[in-house]
């Protein structure tokens, strides 16, 4: 702060010196043109004191301008104070400059009178001095207004940044909450199936399901990211389906049609598992005979990833949208809305050949493995 103020005043002194030198050169050249030359130092003595004195009285002007701003509610009083200060500045500047100039270079011309010269200077420069005063006050006002505007901009930007970070944190917390709700959802269903198999005495099935459940929980705890590659999501789904195969045996068949170029696409973790679980629970388990769950993934229209889960069960009934209000479907829909906003779709329908169909379409993004701090709906908008 001290260095900034020192630099400001040094700049003013430098500017005053430069203007004084230019004006002195003008006086020197003018007298030479009139064949009445002056020595350099006399020409400078007639101009430099005026500019240095103006710099000297400038702190007083800035003090008055700060204490009595013209844009305040008491502007009539401020205007009166500035008029008085302007007249005072004019007297100080003209008298002081003239006196210093006379002291440096005394006028030796016959009949010369300092008082008459001072009166002439007042008649020539009185209005100019008043305008100069108000010009300095106006420049100070413009500077202060600019600083206030910039400060308001900085504060507004800081508030907007804090609000954006808070919104991102709230979205992230909401996403984590939705994701963690899915873990106990399939965990409880699996433990219930294990207890049923244990009651039936199916020891090998219980051991196999517990082993795969252990693998599933380990992967779930190790991968806490909201986003993974489709390849990782399918690997997680394979372990889950092994558990379901133990439960349903030959009643459950899985078909998969995944484009190779879609494997590296970025998807929300635990996206497919609740959809497949919904297809098994409300589709395959409702049939007396065997059923099929089909998982498809493809890139459509160049920049969209389309995922589809279908089954050969009874379907969603007459109202597919109302049929998808379970925990898995509802949480998946909420997570997609949080992550992508309007840049996603999730459609539920009944297949013409029988069974249910869930189609999810997401913006195509290649998974990079990097954490995303902002909601994707802002990053992809």
Terminal-residue CA separation? 43 Å
CATH class of the largest domain: Alpha Beta
Q: What is the CATH homologous superfamily assignment of the largest domain?
A: Histidine kinase-like ATPase, C-terminal domain
Treating each run of at least 4 consecutive H or I residues as one helix, how many helices?
11
Percent helix, as a range, is: 55-70%
CATH architecture label of the largest domain:
2-Layer Sandwich
**How are helices and strands ordered from N to C?**
HHHHHHEHEEHEEHHEEH
- Structural Rg: 42 Å
- Mean pLDDT reading: 80
Number of structural domains? 2
Category by helix and strand content: alpha+beta
Strand content: 5-15%
Shape: rod-shaped
* Sheet with the most strands: spatial strand order: 2-4-5-7-6
- Strand elements, count: 7
Main sheet properties: 5 strands, mixed
| Unreliable runs | 371-381
Topology:
Layout: H1 2-33, H2 40-45, H3 48-67, H4 75-104, H5 114-200, H6 203-222, E1 227-229, H7 230-248, E2 252-258, E3 266-268, H8 272-282, E4 291-300, E5 304-311, H9 320-323, H10 327-340, E6 345-350, E7 356-363, H11 376-379
Parallel strand pairs: 2-4
Antiparallel strand pairs: 1-3, 4-5, 5-7, 6-7
Commentary on this structure:
The chain has 381 residues and is of the alpha+beta class. The strands form two sheets. A five-stranded mixed beta sheet has the order 2-4-5-7-6. It is built from eleven helices and seven strands. The protein folds into two domains: 2-159, no CATH class; 202-379, Histidine kinase-like ATPase, C-terminal domain (Heat Shock Protein 90). The protein is rod-shaped and about 135 Å long.
